[in-house]
Amino acid sequence: MPGPNGHNLPPALCPLCGRNNDCAVLAGRPVEACWCAVVPIPPSLRARIPPERRGKACICRACAERHQSGMPT
After folding, report:
1. What is the DSSP letter of 43?
2. Total-model pTM
């Protein structure tokens, strides 16, 4: 498997760090049950997703929270 920004990562892995993104939809639960329904993911963070991974994998909660706190993701 390539690094975090590789083309072959499964959709359950964060396109920024490569860790599990805990997507409720991928787990068969409704989108309302997902952590991303309560933790904002700003456009500036979404813009960091490599173009080839956009729309294919969700950012993980840890990356979203690090971004909010000003820490590098």
Report:
1. H
2. 0.80
Question: Residues 60-70: pLDDT tens digits?
Answer: 999 999 998 87
Nearest CA-CA partner of 25 in 57, 54, 48, 52:
57
Confidence of residue 3 (pLDDT cuts 50, 70, 90): very low
Phi, psi of 67 (to 5 degrees): -60, -45
Can you tell me the distance from the alpha carbon of 61 to that of 14, in angstroms, rounded to the nearest whole number? 9
CA neighbor of 59 nearest in space, from 6, 8, 25, 11: 11
Contact in structure between 56 and 49 (CB atoms under 8 Å): no
Q: How far apart are CA 27 and CA 30, in angstroms?
A: 9
Rounded CA separation 5/16 (Å):
6
